[in-house]
């Protein structure tokens, strides 16, 4: 059974792209904590450190039975080997080797660059029995419908969608993508639910993001709004005896999505466990959404587009 939360290994790429470099010795307890807690759906991609995230995760996965985990990885068009007979299959095979498995539970087209060509090239792999569910990430509604039509003609379907979705970025909801997923029995995976820590309650005008960092450039200019939002969220969090960071995750679960949480410390897994068991009322969901709307912050990132 799929857990309520997926654990993200993008920072395990160890190349500094997403922050601090992490060693295998530092990350192994994180993996073990996730497995013990039943949060055993691991999300990665070749592009996270150009294979490094998959390699590290693969070493850990080899130490546990195959049936004890679910794995999610991606075909990233910008990294495709265009000289391969089928670039999608080639990237899959390389990823599967690094991960130490011949079956990927969720295999995604990472973004719509070159769509719908890559959807067509995914078909032989999808029919091979080596992929459980077909996923599309960062696709808008029109692109999802186009891919669904292509796959449907081959007796296949879009099983999952993965987009940026948070209290501060509900474009996949407003555009009808969440509704499309419900109508077509497709799971929706939400990444950046915590907006890279902006919704964790950790940062405010007195404690800004590191100056010069990518996160600082995006969120430091709106810290006054974030401070007000996080302060209001703390009242709701206190009533549940949880931290502020658990609320946006529990909200995403209440909206019928699967949050992907990046984990690099055991306490991140422990926080995820708390969020997975936190049940918000309909009134609390509405209150959180109203607070976020009042903050009026645009968090669409440079690699994204509006999900119209």
Give an account of the 3D structure.
- With 308 residues, this protein is of the alpha/beta class.
- It has a single domain, classed as NADP-dependent oxidoreductase domain (TIM Barrel, Alpha-Beta Barrel), CATH 3.20.20.
- Helix content is 42%, strand content 13%.
- The chain contains twelve helices and eight strands.
- The chain has helices at 24-37, 52-61, 87-99, 117-126, 141-152, 171-174, 177-183, 214-219, 223-240, 246-254, 266-277, 282-295; strands at residues 6-8, 41-43, 70-75, 104-109, 131-137, 160-164, 187-191, 258-262.
- An eight-stranded parallel beta barrel has the order 1-2-3-4-5-6-7-8, surrounded by five helices.
- Strand 4 (104-109), helix 4 and strand 5 form a beta-alpha-beta unit.
- It is globular and about 55 Å long.
- The two termini are 32 Å apart.
- The mean pLDDT is 94.
């Amino acid at each position: 059974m799929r857990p309520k939360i997926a654990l993200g290994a993008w920072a395990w790429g160890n190349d500094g792209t997403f922050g601090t470099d992490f060693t295998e010795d530092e990350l192994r307890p994180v993996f073990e904590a996730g497995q013990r807690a039943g949060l055993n759906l691991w999300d990665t991609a070749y592009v996270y450190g150009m294979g490094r995230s998959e390699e590290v995760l693969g070493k850990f996965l080899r130490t546990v039975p195959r049936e004890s985990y679910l794995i999610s990885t991606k075909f990233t068009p910008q990294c495709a080997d265009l000289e391969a007979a089928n670039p999608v299959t080639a990237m899959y095979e390389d990823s599967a080797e690094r991960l130490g498995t011949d079956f990927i539970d969720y295999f995604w087209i990472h973004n719509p660059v070159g769509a719908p060509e890559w959807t067509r090239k995914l078909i032989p792999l999808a029919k091979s029995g080596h992929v459980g569910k077909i996923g599309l990430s960062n696709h808008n509604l029109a692109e999802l419908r186009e891919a669904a039509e292509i796959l449907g003609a081959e007796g296949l379907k879009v099983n999952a969608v993965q987009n940026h979705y948070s209290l501060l970025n509900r474009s996949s909801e407003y555009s009808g993508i969440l509704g499309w997923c419900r109508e077509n029995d497709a799971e929706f995976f939400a990444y950046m639910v915590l907006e890279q820590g902006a919704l964790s309650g950790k940062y405010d005008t007195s404690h800004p993001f590191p100056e010069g960092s990518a996160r600082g450039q995006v969120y430091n200019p709106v810290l006054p709004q974030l401070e007000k939002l996080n302060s209001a969220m703390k009242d709701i969090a206190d009533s549940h005896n949880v931290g502020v960071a658990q609320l946006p995750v529990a909200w995403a679960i209440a909206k019928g999505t699967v949050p992907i949480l990046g984990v690099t410390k055991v306490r991140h897994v422990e926080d995820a466990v708390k969020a997975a068991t936190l049940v918000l009322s309909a009134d609390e969901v509405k209150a959180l959404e109203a607070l976020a709307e009042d903050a009026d912050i645009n968090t669409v990132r440079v690699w994204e587009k509006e999900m119209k």
